[in-house]
Amino acid sequence: MLDDRLFTAMANPVRRRLLELLRDGSLTAGALAAQFDLSRPAVSEHLQVLRRAELVREEVRGRERHYHLTAEPLAAVSDWLHPFERFWRDRMRTLSKIMEEEPDDG
């Protein structure tokens, strides 16, 4: 069963962008904050939500905080979404068949 914190965390576009930024490797809190037109405390709050959902982990190095993507929860979301992908694939296949059967008016 998936934790609702995952969906809550991913529902916000700023948090989704933070996850995208961390895809290629760890970044400092300052480097992440520089990507947004938000205050550093606002970005820190978003990072805290992602930490509570276990989507990122924080590593303190001296005075800097480095954030790393934690991909395991995203795999659980992907597994949960998989049956829905089949649903839409079937719908698109049906639509394609209908479109092929339609006479060309032009």
Named CATH topology: Arc Repressor Mutant, subunit A
The residue-averaged pLDDT reads 90
Shape: elongated
Number of domains: 1
SS summary, helix count:
5
Q: What percent strand? A: 5-15%
String of helices and strands: HHEHHEEH
SSE class: alpha+beta
Strand order of the largest sheet: 1-3-2
Are there runs of 5+ residues with pLDDT below 50, and where? none
Percent range for helical residues? Answer: 55-70%
Protein model, in words:
Keywords: DNA-binding. GO terms for molecular function: DNA binding; DNA-binding transcription factor activity. It holds the Pfam family HTH_20. This protein has 106 residues and is α+β, with helices and mostly antiparallel strands. It has a single domain, classed as Arc Repressor Mutant, subunit A. The chain is 61% helix and 13% strand. It has a 3-stranded antiparallel β-sheet with strand order 1-3-2. Strand 2 and strand 3 form a beta hairpin. The longest helix has 30 residues, at 72-101. It starts with a helix and ends in a 5-residue tail after the last helix. The model has no long low-confidence stretch (mean pLDDT 90).
Descriptive tags:
single chain, 106 residues, alpha+beta, Arc Repressor Mutant, subunit A, 3-stranded antiparallel sheet, 5 helices, 3 strands
